[in-house]
Task: inverse folding
C-alpha cells in the first residue's frame, strides 16, 4: 500500500518538482560563483578566491550575509505588496521551468515516465504565461517602494519586458510551425538523431534562435539590456529599497529566469536532451548521458549569458526600446514568413 | 458535490453583476474600465460553460475573439483617458461635464 | 478534488472582484492588482472546465498584458485616491445597484431550481486543445479572424494617435 503510494504518478511528479527546485536553487548559487570568476577572467583579474578552494564556498558566504542583513522597509511603502513582490517574481520564474523536459522518457517503476513536470497540450504557453506573470513582481516592487527611482525603474523594466516578449513569442512560433505541436516533449523527440536534425540547423531556425537569445537577454534584464537596474543610472531601479532576503529573492529570480530562458532555448532550438549523434547502447547509460547533455547545453548558453554581459556596453533606454520594436519585431516577423515558406515548400522533414 | 453548469453560471452572473456595480459606483475613469473588464470576464465564463456543456468549440472561439476585443478596447480606452488627463489633470469622470446643459 | 478547487477559486474570485468594485478601496493600483488576481482565478475556472487553450490565453493576454497596460497608465498618470461617491444622482447611486442585485437575486435561485445538481457530460479528448481551436479558427471562422487582426491594427494606430502629446 505504502509502496504503491510512493511510486504513484502523483508522487513521481512530486519527486520531479523537488529535484527541479533543488537543482534550480543550486544552479543559482553556482551561477553566482561562475559569474564572479568568469567576469574576473574576462577582466584580467582574480575573482573571489578566499572563501574556499577557488572561492567555491563564496555562494554560501553570500547566502549567510544576505540572511544576516537588516531588513529595511521604507516608511510609506505599501507593506503587503512590498513583501509579496519578490516572492511573486521568484515563484513565477520557478513555475516557468515546469514544462521543460530535462531528460528522456525513462522506464522506471514498471512504466514510462517522461522527465518533465507538466506535459499539457499547450506546453510552451505555460512557460510564456509564467514569464508574463513575472512582470507583476517588478511592477509591484517599483510601485510599492514609494520612491521615484523605484517607480521609474519598475516602469522601464516592465515596459522593456513586455516589448521584448513580443519578439520572443514570434521567434517561438517559427519552431511551432516546424514542429507542429506545442508540447516540448514532442518538440525534443522530433530532434532526435544527428545534430543537424536540431531545430536551429535542420529546422531552419538559426535567425529564430538568435532573436530568441537577444529577446531572452532583454526579458531577464541582463546586460546589455539592464538599464532598469543599472547602478549608475537609477541607483538600483526597482529593487533600490530592498535589502537582505527580499533583495536576494529578486537576485535569485533573475538567475532562475536566466536558467529558464536558456533551458527554453536548448529545448526548442538545440535539441533538448538529444545527444546529437546516435549511440549503440540504450537504457540507463543512455538516459544519464542525455540528462548530462541537457545540462551541458544549458551550461554553454549560460556561459554565453555571462560572456555577453561583461563584453557589451549598456543600451540607453530609448535605444533599447527602439531595438525591440523597430529591430527585433520586424526581424521576427521576417523569420516567421521565411519559416512558413520553408514548411510550405516541404524543406523540413518532421 | 458534483460540479454542474449552474454553479459556473451563478458565478458568472455574480461576476457580471459586480462589474455593473463597479461601473455605477466608481468615480475614476480607469476603475470604470476595470469594471468593464470584469463584466467581459463574466460573459466569457458563461460562454465556456456552455461550450463545455454541449461539447463544442464555438464558445471557445467566441471567447478568443472577446479577449482580443477586450485588449483592443482597453488600449483605446486608456489612450482616451490619457488624452483627457492632459486636458483636465484628473481622471474623475464627474469632472467631464463640459457637454452638460 | 475539483469541487474543492472550484470553491477556493470562486471565493478568491468574488473577493478580488469586490475589492475592484467597492468604493471603499480608494487606491486604484490595489484595485488593478485585485483584478489581475480575479483574471487568474477565471483562468483557473477555464482550466477546470477543460478549455486549456483559452485558459492559457487568459493568463498570457488578459492578466499578463492588458492588466500590465492598465497598471502602466495608472502609474504614469499618478492617479490619486478616489474621492467619495459625490455628485452622482439617485438613480445611479441606489436604483442601479438595486436592479443589478435584483438581477442576481432572481437568476441564482432559478438556476439552482432548474438543474438539480446535474453534472457536465464527459468532454471529448480534444475539447479544449490548441489543435481543435486552430482548426475551427482557420476554416469556419477565418473571416472573423482576419477581421479581428485588422481591428487590432486599427486599435494600435488609434491608441498611439490619441495618446500623442502633439500630433
Result:
Amino acid at each position: 500500500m505504502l509502496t504503491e503510494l510512493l511510486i504513484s504518478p502523483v508522487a513521481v511528479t512530486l519527486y520531479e518538482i523537488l529535484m527541479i527546485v533543488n537543482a534550480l536553487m543550486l544552479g543559482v548559487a553556482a551561477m553566482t560563483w561562475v559569474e564572479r570568476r568568469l567576469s574576473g577572467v574576462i577582466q584580467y583579474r582574480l575573482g573571489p578566491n578566499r572563501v574556499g578552494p577557488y572561492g567555491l564556498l563564496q555562494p554560501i558566504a553570500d547566502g549567510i550575509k544576505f540572511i544576516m542583513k537588516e531588513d529595511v522597509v521604507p516608511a510609506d511603502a505599501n507593506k503587503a505588496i512590498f513583501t509579496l513582490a519578490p516572492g511573486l517574481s521568484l515563484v513565477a520564474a520557478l513555475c516557468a521551468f515546469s514544462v521543460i523536459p530535462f531528460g528522456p522518457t525513462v522506464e522506471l517503476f514498471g512504466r514510462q515516465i517522461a522527465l518533465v513536470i507538466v506535459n499539457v497540450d499547450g506546453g510552451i504557453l505555460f512557460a510564456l504565461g509564467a514569464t508574463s506573470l513575472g512582470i507583476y513582481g517588478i511592477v509591484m516592487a517599483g510601485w510599492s517602494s514609494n520612491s521615484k527611482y523605484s517607480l521609474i525603474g519598475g516602469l522601464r523594466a516592465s515596459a522593456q519586458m513586455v516589448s521584448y516578449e513580443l519578439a520572443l513569442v514570434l521567434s517561438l512560433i517559427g519552431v511551432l510551425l516546424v514542429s507542429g505541436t506545442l508540447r516540448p516533449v514532442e518538440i525534443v523527440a522530433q530532434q532526435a538523431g544527428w545534430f543537424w536534425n536540431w531545430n536551429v540547423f535542420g529546422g531552419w531556425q538559426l535567425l529564430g534562435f538568435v532573436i530568441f537569445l537577444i529577446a531572452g537577454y532583454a526579458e531577464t534584464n541582463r546586460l546589455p539590456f539592464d538599464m532598469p537596474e543599472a547602478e549608475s543610472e537609477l541607483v538600483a531601479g526597482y529593487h533600490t529599497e530592498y535589502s537582505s532576503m527580499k533583495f536576494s529573492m529578486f537576485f535569485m529570480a533573475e538567475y532562475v529566469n536566466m536558467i529558464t530562458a536558456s533551458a527554453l532555448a536548448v529545448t526548442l532550438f538545440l535539441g533538448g536532451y538529444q545527444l546529437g549523434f546516435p549511440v549503440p547502447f540504450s537504457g540507463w547509460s543512455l538516459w544519464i548521458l542525455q540528462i548530462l547533455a541537457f545540462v551541458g547545453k544549458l551550461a554553454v548558453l549560460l556561459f554565453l549569458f555571462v560572456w555577453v554581459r561583461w563584453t557589451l556596453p549598456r543600451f540607453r533606454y530609448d535605444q533599447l526600446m527602439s531595438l525591440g520594436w523597430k529591430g527585433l519585431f520586424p526581424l521576427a516577423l521576417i523569420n516567421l514568413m521565411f519559416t512558413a515558406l520553408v514548411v510550405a515548400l516541404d524543406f523540413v522533414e518532421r | 458535490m458534483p460540479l454542474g453548469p449552474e454553479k459556473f453560471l451563478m458565478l458568472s452572473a455574480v461576476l457580471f453583476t459586480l462589474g455593473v456595480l463597479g461601473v455605477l459606483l466608481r468615480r475614476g475613469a480607469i476603475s470604470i474600465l476595470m469594471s468593464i473588464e470584469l463584466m467581459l470576464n463574466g460573459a466569457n465564463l458563461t460562454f465556456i460553460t456552455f461550450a463545455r456543456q454541449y461539447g463544442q468549440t464555438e464558445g471557445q472561439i467566441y471567447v478568443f475573439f472577446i479577449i482580443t476585443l477586450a485588449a483592443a478596447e482597453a488600449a483605446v480606452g486608456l489612450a482616451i483617458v490619457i488624452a483627457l488627463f492632459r486636458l483636465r489633470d484628473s481622471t474623475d469622470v464627474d469632472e467631464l461635464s463640459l457637454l452638460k446643459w | 478534488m475539483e469541487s474543492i478547487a472550484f470553491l477556493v477559486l470562486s471565493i478568491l474570485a468574488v473577493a478580488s472582484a469586490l475589492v475592484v468594485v467597492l468604493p471603499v478601496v480608494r487606491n486604484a493600483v490595489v484595485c488593478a492588482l485585485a483584478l489581475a488576481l480575479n483574471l487568474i482565478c477565471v483562468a483557473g475556472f477555464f482550466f477546470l472546465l477543460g478549455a486549456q487553450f483559452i485558459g492559457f490565453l487568459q493568463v498570457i493576454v488578459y492578466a499578463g498584458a492588458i492588466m500590465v497596460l492598465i497598471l502602466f497608465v495608472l502609474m504614469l498618470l499618478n492617479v490619486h485616491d478616489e474621492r467619495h461617491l459625490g455628485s452622482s444622482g439617485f438613480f445611479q447611486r441606489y436604483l442601479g445597484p438595486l436592479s443589478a442585485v435584483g438581477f442576481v437575486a432572481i437568476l441564482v435561485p432559478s438556476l439552482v431550481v432548474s438543474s438539480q445538481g446535474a453534472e457536465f457530460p464527459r468532454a471529448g479528448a480534444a475539447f479544449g486543445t490548441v489543435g481543435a481551436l486552430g482548426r475551427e479558427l482557420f476554416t469556419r471562422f477565418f473571416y472573423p479572424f482576419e477581421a479581428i487582426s485588422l481591428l487590432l491594427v486599427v486599435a494600435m494606430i488609434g491608441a498611439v494617435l490619441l495618446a500623442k502629446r502633439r500630433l
